[in-house]
Design goal:
There is one protein chain. By secondary structure, this protein is an alpha+beta fold. It has a single domain, classed as CBS-domain. It contains 5 helices and 5 strands; from the N terminus they run H-E-H-E-E-H-H-E-E-H. It has a 3-stranded mixed sheet. Helix 2 links the parallel strand 1 and strand 2. Helix 4 crosses helix 5.
Length: about 150
């Protein structure tokens, strides 16, 4: 099973963030510019304050008729973000995102943000693992004589 550490090593650990006092419009612009669906929200000292996503924007700005220019990120972000560590494995993370109905997991070590994994990263890792196991089993089956069959 691939660990979060291995996922970050292969995809990189660059994380885009915004401060909690920034206007929501700035967060949306940054997400659009970077082609991403969420930003980590960091306090000035670098402490994880939460996460803000396009889903937060749709539900808490658009549907409530609020102004994205006048509303700070802290008012719509998810403050109690679910986090994982470097040694967590992809299936455990997949279970977390499925159960919690979330798409992004900040990776935190000793209180410091070190990366972010998305549901897409996890799906890719699980598929690669399953493909590896399938190929391994196919090679094993092809190399063994069939049960009850004697070699000449």
């Amino acid at each position: 099973m691939r660990t979060v550490r291995q996922l970050l090593e292969s995809k990189g650990s660059e994380v885009f963030s915004i401060g909690p006092d920034a206007a929501v419009i700035d967060a949306i612009r940054l997400m659009a510019e970077k082609g991403i669906g969420a930003l980590v929200v960091l306090e000035p000292g670098g402490r994880l304050a939460g996460i803000v996503s396009e889903r937060d924007y749709a539900r808490k700005i658009v549907l409530e008729g609020r102004s994205s220019r006048d509303t700070p990120v802290r008012d719509i972000m998810t403050a109690d973000a679910v986090t994982v560590g470097l040694d967590d494995d992809a299936p455990a993370c997949m279970q977390l995102v499925t159960e919690r109905r979330i798409r992004h997991l900040p990776v935190v070590v000793d209180g410091k943000l070190v990366g972010l994994v998305s549901i897409g990263d996890l799906v890719k890792a699980v598929i690669e693992e399953q493909q590896f196991e399938l190929e391994h089993l196919q090679r094993y089956i092809k190399s063994e004589p069939a049960v009850g069959h004697r070699a000449p």
